[in-house]
Amino acid sequence: MNNEEPRKMSLGMRLAFACGEVGDNVALNTFTFLIFTYYFTVVRIPAPIMTLGFILWALWNAFNDPLIGYLSDRTKSRWGRRIPWMIGATIPLGVLMILLFTPPGDYLTNQSVFIYFIIILILFDFAYTSFNLNYNSLFSEMFVDMKERSSTGRIRIIFVLIATMFALTFPTFIIEDITNKDPLIPVSTTITGYQITGIVAAIIIFVFYFLILKWGVKDPKHISKDAESAMSFTKTLKFTFKHKSFLWFLFPALGTWLVINILPTLSPLFFVYAVGIEDEFLIGILLMISFLVAAVSTPLWELIRVKKGARLCGLIGIVVWLVSVVCFAYSVTFEMALIFMIFFGVGLGGGLYFYDQCIAEIIDEDEITYGIRRSGIYYAVLNFLIRLSMILNFVIIGLVFTSTDWMNYTPNPGVDVILGLRILMGIYPGIVLGLSLIGMYFYPIKGERLAENRRKLTELHKQKLGSV
After folding, report:
1. Considering only CA atoms, which of 62, 136, 157 is closest in space to residue 374?
2. Which domains does the chain possess?
3. pLDDT computed for residue 230 by the predictor
4. pTM
5. Is 444 helix (H, G, I), strand (E, B) or coil?
6. What is the SS3 assignment for 373-385?
7. Residues 418, 57: contact at Cβ < 8 Å?
C-alpha cells in the first residue's frame, strides 16, 4: 500500500456509511421533538423546573463532549480510533430511547420524576455523543477525496432528512393526543403512544447501526496512526480555538443548530395553539412535506457546493431559511403554513448540507497545519458548544412561558401565549440566522485557499500512506 492513493469507496459502502445517519437522526429528533412536550404537558413538570433541568444537562456537556472527543482521538485498538466507541454506544442508546418515556410513579405527584428526568438526559447525551461524534469524525477521515466527500455528503443529507421526517411525523400518527389537551382521551393512551414511539426508535437504531458497523465503516490506518502522536488535552483545545476558520464557522454552526433544535421542540404546541391545527395527522403532513422538500433540494445544494464552494452554499441556504422561518411563524391557517414550510424545507436542506462540508474543510486545514488529524476534538467542541447554546433556547422558552402565565401547562392558552409562541418560532430564529449569515460571510476557506489546502492535503496523505 506504500505511496498509493487511498482506495476509493464503493457505492455500497457509501450507502452503508450513510445508514448511520438514520439511527443517529431518529434518536436525536425523536428526543428533540418529544422530550419537552412530553415532560411539560404529560408529566407536568413546570416550565422553570424544566429550564433548570436542561441547563444542568448542558453544563454536563461541558465535560462530557470534549472528554469523549479527546479520548477518541487517542484511542488505540485493532479497529482504529472511532469504531470501538460506536459499537459501545449502540445498545445503550436504543435502550435509552425507551426509558425516555417511562418515568417512575404517579406523574402528577412523584417528585422523583425530576431526578429521573435529569439522569435520563445525561445518559442519553453520553450514549448519543459516543456514537455521533465518532461517526462524524470518520466522515472526514474516510472520505478525503473531494468528489467522494461531496457525493457521500449528498447521500448522508438525504438519509438525514428521511430519518428526520420519520422522527417528526411518525409520532403524530401514533400519539393520539400529543399535547394532552383533550379530556376525553385518557392520559394513559397518550403515554402509551409516546412509549410505542420510543420502542420503534430503538428498533431503528439497532438495525441501522448494525448496517453501518457491519458494512459501512473502516478506520483508515494511516490516519488512525495519529493517535500515537496525539496532543495533550489542554494543548489540543488551545490549538482548536486558535483556528480562525473554525471560529468564524461557529456562528453559522451554532445558529443552524439553535434553530433546528427550537423548531421541533415547540412545533407540537405551536401548530395546535398558534396555527389552530387540531388534527395530529395534518401536523405530520406539514412536517413531512418540509423534509421531503429539503431532501429534493439536496442536489441543488451539491451543485452550488461543487461549482462555488461550501461558503456560498451556506450563504444562500441561510438567507432562504431566514425569510421562510419568519413568515412561517405568522401562519394562521394550514394552507399558509404549508406554503411557508415548502420554502422552509429548501433553506433547511442548504443549512444541513453546508454544515458537514465546512467542518470537513476546517479539519483538513488543521491537519495540514499540525500534521495529525484531530477530527474528534473538533466535533467534540462543536457538540459541546451546540449543547451549551441550547441553554439559551430553554432560558428563552422558560422566560416567555413564565411571562405569559404559562408556567404550568393548561390547554387553550390566551393571546399572550400565542404571541409568545410566534416570537419563539419566528423572531428569535430570524435573529439567530441573521448572526449566522454574518459568520458565514467571513468564513475564509474559499477560492484559492481551498484549492491550496486540497493540494497540500493530498501530499500529506501520500506521505502518511508511505509510512504505514
Report:
1. 136
2. 12-217+234-466 (1.20.1250.20)
3. 67
4. 0.76
5. coil
6. CCHHHHHHHHHHH
7. no
